[in-house]
């Protein structure tokens, strides 16, 4: 009776301080080996540039397999830091296979 | 008889190495004073994170005026550097007023 979406929580790649190639490998593994329909690339703050690099490289490599950028969205997280309200930008890029190709 | 779009080439803000606040001011000026329908925020490489910050802050400040993120797209530029083919990620964020509000 579970309403959980397919692969919930499994097809997410969080971009952090590791080398770019690590994240590209994770993305490719999700899309290739596990045959996931899509992968969600999440990033925050200064790692957003790296997330775009990871998405662009993965798209280029997997283009022949019909992998495209399905959506890009940004938002902000607000939190208290040393008594001050601070905001950090967040980004979510979804890479997915085009079903029609 | 010109087919040129309104404000062509004028409503673009390129994000670079200046302080974030400079770009936020440029974006606000475009949307407020010049009454442009939209502003295009362009960025490349490591400046992409700053572009998202600029867009998110501007959106937050101008939310009451109906300014929203209309679209986000990424791409890559390919060029020759020291005999090697190099790619750089690029991003374009369009901030625009919602006509219906």
Q: Strand share of the residues of chain A?
A: 35-45%
Measured between the Cα atoms of the first and last residue of chain A, the distance is: 33 Å
Largest sheet of chain A: 4 strands, mixed
Number of separate structural domains of chain A: 1
Task: Provide the CATH superfamily of chain A.
Answer: Alba-like domain
Of all protein chain pairs, which has the greatest interface, and how many residues does each chain bring to it?
A-B, 21 and 21 residues
Strand order of the largest sheet of chain A: 1-2-4-3
CATH topology of chain A: Translation Initiation Factor IF3
Q: Mean of residue pLDDT of chain A? A: 87
Structural class of chain A: alpha+beta
- Low-pLDDT segments of chain A: none
Can you walk me through this structure?
The structure is a homodimer of 101-residue chains. Chain A is built from 2 helices and 4 strands; from the N terminus they run βαβαββ. By secondary structure, chain A is of the alpha+beta class. Chain A starts with 11 loop residues before the first strand and ends with a strand. Chain A has a single domain, classed as Translation Initiation Factor IF3 (2-Layer Sandwich). The first copy, chain A, has a 4-stranded mixed beta sheet with strand order 1-2-4-3, covered by helices on one side. The first copy, chain A, is elongated.
């Amino acid at each position: 009776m579970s309403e959980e979406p397919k692969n919930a929580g499994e097809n997410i790649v969080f971009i952090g301080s590791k080398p770019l190639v690590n994240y590209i490998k994770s993305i490719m593994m999700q899309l290739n080996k596990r045959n996931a329909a899509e992968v969600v690339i999440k990033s925050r703050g200064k790692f957003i540039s790296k997330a775009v690099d990871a998405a662009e490289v993965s798209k280029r490599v997997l283009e022949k397999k019909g992998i495209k950028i399905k959506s890009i969205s940004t938002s902000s997280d607000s939190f208290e830091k040393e008594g001050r309200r601070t905001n950090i930008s967040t980004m979510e890029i979804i890479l997915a296979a085009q079903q029609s190709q």
